[in-house]
């Protein structure tokens, strides 16, 4: 019988393991960085190729970033960038000592036999910089988890933002001196005068598109109305125009309707089939023919539906980030704001709605997409003679009006007066428009097809 006592297993030391993990050298390739800079010092064409791939922060060695920025400064002024001129530029800026002196610039040129491969070396540097950002994000996420400083949902959201930022190229040019960009602005203005302004995401309504030039990246567009007026239908029209008519990815987050209800409305509008035929499950032979004709357009469209009940803003933000990373995202619809929650305790509902509004606006800027947010109006319109809504009617408004780039108040007279001479018409009251005029646009309300259309071109049965 073996009576040997087994050796004890050494205890696992979390601190020691973490220390070893964070002492690793970050991903980098000094030779590739030197070859990139050497190629740029040899060839003006190489500078243009590399500038499209790299930014100064992509270099691991700070001295290399300094040399890179000096080369681009000379290139931007139309001056030659070789070891002599770059040394003079760095000397003028008081940076020559930090990069190792003029001799190091000559070393960079000798490091690479030809400038032809500068773009290839730049890709190596770029990829390693992306891995470093991922490592840095992972470190910060780990620290967040251990610190546990705040609500869990807030930590998860911050971690998601860190990861999202790590896997995309960041735009750090938000703060600029006006004079440095004004010549570009004049050139762009001349181009727009000749060729027309760049169109944002189309809404499907010509008059609205003419006014807004489409829905633009970073905007939060609020569509508000009393219940059963058609705000969900209008938002679905925006999504259809984006995804089905123009093939651009769109996502709808509905807290009010089921997937079947949304699909019924989508099919009714796209196939021009009466909604009541679909909800009753009794389409006519003509309806079936129209459904078959529209089916390929619907099935091929990059349109995503999410009907998760009791969802939070944090969850919507995480899902939008994933959609954008997987295949892009051009439009987000949230139906509707007052059904959302932050997932944590707050002092009152108005503060919570204001916080969610602000988060959605920040998400629009972060993802660079327009976000259409539906909102309920209070009973104010019903207490006025003309029933027309006003900005002050936004329920639990808080910062909704302040955060929104555009507020569209939807109004239909026939909701309140069945015999109205304007039956079948809808007013889109542009009550706030940060980048244009406020006005009222009239559209045809084809609610039997679950859609709105231009007055001049109403679809026929």
Automatic annotation (TrEMBL):
Q: What class of enzyme is it?
A: isomerase
Top-level division of the source organism's lineage: Bacteria
**Which InterPro entries does the UniProt record give?**
DNA_heli_DnaB-like_N_sf, DNA_helicase_DnaB, DNA_helicase_DnaB-like_C, DNA_helicase_DnaB-like_N, DNA_helicase_N/primase_C, P-loop_NTPase
Query: GO MF annotations for this entry?
Result: 5'-3' DNA helicase activity; ATP binding; ATP hydrolysis activity; DNA binding
Protein name (Swiss-Prot/TrEMBL): Replicative DNA helicase
Q: What is the lineage of its organism?
A: Bacteria, Bacillati, Actinomycetota, Actinomycetes, Kitasatosporales
Give the reaction(s) catalysed.
ATP + H2O = ADP + phosphate + H(+)
Described by its record, this protein's role is as follows: The main replicative DNA helicase, it participates in initiation and elongation during chromosome replication. Travels ahead of the DNA replisome, separating dsDNA into templates for DNA synthesis. A processive ATP-dependent 5'-3' DNA helicase it has DNA-dependent ATPase activity.
Query: Known Gene3D superfamilies for this protein?
Result: DNAb Helicase, Chain A, P-loop containing nucleotide triphosphate hydrolases
The EC number(s) attached to this protein equal 5.6.2.3
The record's keywords, sorted A to Z, are:
ATP-binding, DNA replication, DNA-binding, Helicase, Hydrolase, Isomerase, Nucleotide-binding, Primosome
Cite a GO CC annotation: primosome complex
Give GO terms for biological process. DNA replication, synthesis of primer
Q: What residue stretches are annotated with the SF4 helicase domain?
A: 194-459
What family name appears in the similarity comment?
Belongs to the helicase family. DnaB subfamily.
**Segments for region (Disordered):** 1-23
Originating species: Streptomyces violaceusniger
